[in-house]
Amino acid sequence: MELSLVIANGTIVTPNGTRSADVGVRSGKIVKIGTIGRIARRDAGEVVDATGCLVMPGAIDPHVHFDLTIGKGMTTADDFDTGTRAAVAGGVTTFIDYTTPEPGQRPMEAFRARRAAADPYVRCDYGLHNVLIDFKPEWRSDLAQLVRLGAPSIKLFMIYSDRGWQADDGMLVEVMGHARRLGLTVCVHAENDSLIDHYTRRVLALPKKKRPGAYGLALSRPPLCENEAVARAILLAGATGAKLHLVHLSTAEAARRVGEAREAGLKVSGETSPQYLALQHKRLALKNGHRLGCCPPLRTKVHRQGLFDALRDGRLSAIGTDHCAFTAAQKDTWGGDFTRIPYGLPGVETSLQVTWTLGPARGNLPIERWVSLHTDGPARLFGLYPRKGSLQIGTDADLLVWDPKVARRIKAADLQTNCDWSPYEGRALKGQARHVFLRGIEVARAGRCLRRPVRGKFVLRRA
Ligand code: URP
Ligand code: ZN
Ligand code: ZN
User: Fold this and answer.
1) Is the CB of 344 under 6 A from ligand 1?
2) CA separation for the pair 349, 345 (Å, rounded)
3) How far apart are CA 391 and CA 436, in angstroms?
4) 411 with 429: CB under 8 angstroms?
């Protein structure tokens, strides 16, 4: 049978190495890696010349928030349609979003509601982490069912008591125990709520003249807030035997603690996000600094370097963007009070360019490691491997032709996201997703999403 797609003359990059080879696709799967001859190319449905480009698996973003309402009627700028338009334009072919339970809502109901919200709109494949903002013993059967339905991960927040989302230590231990027995991974947003309260009160008590504006976010959430919570989450995971994944880590010490836990044989992993690698904390104090408000907050150079070291040496296993986009107008509702900033940044579309520019383009990260952090790293953590995140015979033909030669200045107006500003505005970023294929069909080209060539699907993940 003929090939539907040939990607010819590219340099294939996998975590194990780099080599020149063609890739052949049939029925949405990779069926050939090697030399594809003239006749097979002539008969193929489509041939893409990848000369001078890297060919890698489509990227997996294990941490996005599309269509998230954070209260007070504030809903993210990107829904599942525009968010996945941005995702594929940036080279992401699979993402994992989060359910959004109402208080008292059973996990299964929240899961079904989120599927109904996402399924008709997604332009690439996706999975769901199950957020628990409360827990009742009779909900255990829901967790077991979620494993069977291909969503074997839970998300707990150690903060956001003000939104009613916080899991206290008792809930952490209880849920971790069930998760271990049922085979779910527990993702945790680790910050210490009570320390944040304490420091926030101190900053708010400063005389008017000394008030720090949006920089108050950094002052009210010093690294200690994250480090203590990371250490506690690791202790609790160790005690319960749960598989723990720490999301959006922003400090060097948090990454160090993850590394130590792994060395001690605990089932602990961690991810960081492009903003913690690329953006200086000082920018919070500048004009429109409040737009960069996210939690944990942006940090100093020492942390950015520490995170990069941890990505390089394997203490951190994945990059997740925590894409949580609010428009400039939404951000501007903060009214000068750093506690009222809608937290979160856009990132899914620029993630690969940011990490490529800071990593391989500067000789700061081997290309294979960069590929791994965006592909098989998250795939292995979250039960997608090898179907997603790997370039092997028989796996989904989610493929990315990455052009390292492109360099462009970011302009929000050029991006596909519905967010009308970018943290990277004016910044020269290198590399571009030249062709992006989802199950063998091209979905984006040169930073533009193509018109709905294929529907995204919910992917069953394995526990
Ligand atoms: O500021 C952030 N990180 N917003 C998104 C929600 C979360 O905590 O992940
Ligand atoms: Zn979070
Ligand atoms: Zn998040």
Assistant:
1) yes
2) 11
3) 14
4) no
- Beta-carbon neighbour count of residue 209 at 10 Å? 5
Sign of CA dihedral 454, 458, 462, 463: positive
* Residue in 120, 77, 80 with CA at minimum distance from that of residue 98: 80
Closest among 60, 64, 43, 63 to 1, alpha carbons compared: 43
> CA 125, CA 148: separation in Å to the nearest integer?
18
Q: What is the pLDDT of residues 447-458, one digit of tens each?
A: 999 987 899 999
CA 5 to chain CA centroid, Å, is 29
Return the minimum-mean-pLDDT range out of 106-110, 207-211, 224-228: 207-211
What single letter denotes the amino acid at residue 314? G
| Alpha-carbon span 231 to 224, nearest angstrom | 10
Helices (H), 375-446: 376-381
Radius of gyration of the chain (CA): 21
Q: Are 92 and 59 contacting, i.e. CB atoms less than 8 angstroms apart?
A: yes
The pLDDT value given to residue 72? 76
Nearest CA to ligand 1 atom 4: 344
pTM, entire model: 0.98
Phi, psi of 117 (to 5 degrees): -75, -35
What digits encode the pLDDT tens for the residues 374-401? Answer: 999 999 999 999 999 999 999 999 999 9
b (16+ CB within 10 A) / e for 211-237: ebebbbbbbbbbbebbbbbbbbbbebb
Instruction: Calculate mean pLDDT across residues 93-109.
Output: 98
Closest CA to 181 of 157, 149, 154: 154
In sequence order, what are the beta bridge partners of 13? 18
Q: How far is ligand 1, taken at its centre, from the CA of residue 461, in Å?
A: 23
Check if 295 has its Cβ closer than 6 Å to any atom of ligand 1: yes
The whole-number pLDDT of residue 452 equals 76
Question: Residue 216: is its pLDDT beyond 90?
Answer: yes
